[in-house]
Amino acid sequence: MRSRYDCVSTELAKAIKSVQGNTVHLVEVGVYAGDRAEAMIRQVQAAGKEARYFGYDLFEGLTPEKNTQEKGKAKLPPSRAAVLQRLTKAYTGKGLKPTLVAGDSKDTLPGIQGHVIFADFIFIDGGHSLDTIESDWHSVEPVVGPDTIVLFDDCYPGDDTVGCFELMCRLGREFLVEPLEPVDDCNGLKIQMVKVTRAKT
Ligand SMILES: C[S@@+](CC[C@H](N)C(=O)[O-])C[C@H]1O[C@@H](n2cnc3c(N)ncnc32)[C@H](O)[C@@H]1O
User: What is the SS3 assignment for 7?
Assistant: First the structure.
């Protein structure tokens, strides 16, 4: 059965297709153990391109208190070093290495502009609180180019107290907002991903 996580590979495939050069620039906010990161890097390489991956997470900085504040998973993520080792092993290409930035994305993510002009694919899956999602979006917005695909996890349709639903309802006309199927049902809680791209003028 398909889950909302299948949207990541489906949308990444579209992003890869639109990349003219040899390098696909990936940004992930919320890396956790690196499951999605590794899958994305491998997918890019399987398509014959090089992956330049930038991941942002609190890693060791995620305390149980912060996790509650961010309405996150019960389990805390592994260390940055452990995830870096895992992702480095996933690279088959010649020079590129993953970049993992530890810290609160409200502080670290504005630095993305120092790494990349336009990202090709951005997956926002970090803190679930409204202020963190808002901040994450404003940090990546400058690197959203004409063909960039931004995928938000954690849309709880109709719930404007947590997750990205509230932000999605008020993105300006310059962006196309597409809620994606399937909608997962987690013990009665509906969760889906939302795709955001720049509207074509
Ligand atoms: C759902 S997990 C990410 C899963 C990952 N994207 C995947 O699909 O494999 C959410 C992650 O967000 C991180 N996180 C939560 N709040 C954060 C914040 N304010 N800044 C940076 N990372 C944060 C947590 O440490 C956790 O590892």
Answer: helix
CB-count exposure of residue 20 (10 Å: 0-12, 13-18, 19+)? exposed
Pocket of ligand 1 (CB under 6 A): 28, 30-32, 35-36, 56-58, 62, 70, 72-73, 77, 104-105, 125-127, 132
The answer on pLDDT for 54 being more than 90 is yes
pTM for the complete prediction?
0.97
**In this structure, what CATH number is given to the domain that contains residue 137?**
3.40.50.150
Measured in Å, how far apart are the chain's first and last C-alpha atoms?
37
| 1 part of a folded domain | no
| pLDDT tens digits for range 87-130 | 999 998 776 789 999 999 999 999 999 999 999 999 999 999 99
Distance CA 180, CA 152 (A): 10
Q: Which ligand 1 atom is nearest residue 59's CA?
A: 25
Whether 112 and 140 have beta carbons less than 8 Å apart is answered as yes
